[in-house]
Batch of 2 targets.
Target 1
Amino acid sequence: MFDVDAVRARFSAFEGDFAFFDAPGGTQVPDEVAAAVAWNYREASGNLGAPYDTSQRIESVVDEAREKSAVFLGASSEEITFGANMTSLNFTLSRTVGRTLSPKDEIVVTALDHDANVAPWLELARDKDLVVRQVGILDDTTLDYAELEGLLNSRTRVVAFPYASNALGTTVDAGRVCQLAHEAGALAWVDAVQYAPHLPIDVKAIDADVLLCSSYKFCGPHLGIAYGRREVIESWRPYKARPSGDRPVGHRFETGTLPYELLSALVATFDYLDAIGGVEQVVAWERTLGERFLAELPEDTRLYGSPSMEGRVPTFLLNYEGIPSAELSVALAKEGFGVWSGDNYYALALYDRLSWNDALRVGIAHYNTLEEVGRLNETLSALVRRARA
Ligand SMILES: Cc1ncc(COP(=O)(O)O)c(C=O)c1O
């Protein structure tokens, strides 16, 4: 059984009674990750390449961050690129692959995507006269794989899709999409930001060409991580300063000086995840929490996305007819619960398709407890009852 109390003891953030259900926006961070930032400033300051200890420590931090990121994703360390966040990395990498594309080449995106995996392609399409096509979803919010097959053709160069929706939690069969992309001769480009905190990733098993995630969604620093298949990214010409090194190959897409303090924090994040058994260990526990949450929701909850824990991560979008979600999230905050209210959650196509107007997003992370979930459901039910009275 997952020892959630032992996990929580590593976080100062959990010393009070406030219950954080805002993980899809960014998780809480264990103290050891915060301490690693301070360690870096105290003992590994300066820059890479100098012949003394503090500089050499930075070199070890960068190497270790690359190695541990590679293990986390099932990649090799040369295939890792760090960036400010997923969005920045995606603009960089999409512009880079754009150098290989020709007018009328096609990019496929999906209706499940966060705009960080759509806007870079739309902007590239403007600059390079490309065509961007969008695959829709079925009524159960799963990707329309048949439509995807129909859209693919000899001009398709990239299929960009999310591994899990940041709004609904709906997951995508990434292996299937990568295979379809490859059969059409296109690159498979995966946004794994919402998937990475909840389910293990193996880029080789799904056969991704590019996969991106953000460590602040899994108890780490605000930092983006990208995997790029070596044979693919080796063939790209990077936008880089000329003296900046060419090895490892993933480094060619990192511009300027990396945030070493955040890379120290990232190493500590992977050590934390290893210490609690890895993402593999959180799956069953998050499922138990998600099932409890779904089972005890107020009766007239409108839930968008899968009504069970099948085909989803524990990110839930819901609202109540006639009750503004913002009112509920403010009232929940006063009662000690961190739950977001918002409109499109950057999932613009989903927002158009499902028209939820405004909705609460409840995100469960491995550090949540059954007691917190029970308390949230009770409080939410009481608030909804009061609003209806
Ligand atoms: C699915 C998904 N993709 C991309 C992003 C953007 O990530 P970042 O904030 O690292 O740019 C987010 C952020 O919430 C997300 O949930």
Note: Residues 33-274 form a domain with the Aspartate Aminotransferase; domain 2 fold (CATH 3.40.640.10).
Target 2
Amino acid sequence: MKWDDSLYTGNSKIDNQHKELIKRIGQVLIACRERKGAEIVNETLDFLGDYVVEHFSDEEKLQKQYNYPDYKNHKKLHEKFVADFTELRNRFNSDGSTLTVITKLNRVLVQWLMKHIKVEDKKIAAHIKAQVQ
Ligand SMILES: [Fe+2]
């Protein structure tokens, strides 16, 4: 999982956090694929879990600050992600890095996030930009 320019929202704070997020998800996926010990995967998942919460909260603060009209819906999307992530965590804890867990990691983390950034987060950045101008 790599950063590419199609992910730029144009808001530097959001973009920098997204870059870090993508780097961390890449580390989780590599750790799983290489069948690294559960401890390492757990550590990366722990970090990712905390980082996601922090990032979402920063993004939500920004939306409030700029009266983003779709704030409620966006917050719901974040909550759904956190719930899916928690479920995945539990599954990893009980099953380890099985193929099902890795496939889910890909779907829940990678695909969801890419789409979310490209569609939803870009809308926030555009809204902020329009407000600032
Ligand atoms: Fe978001």
Note: The chain has one domain: 11-132.
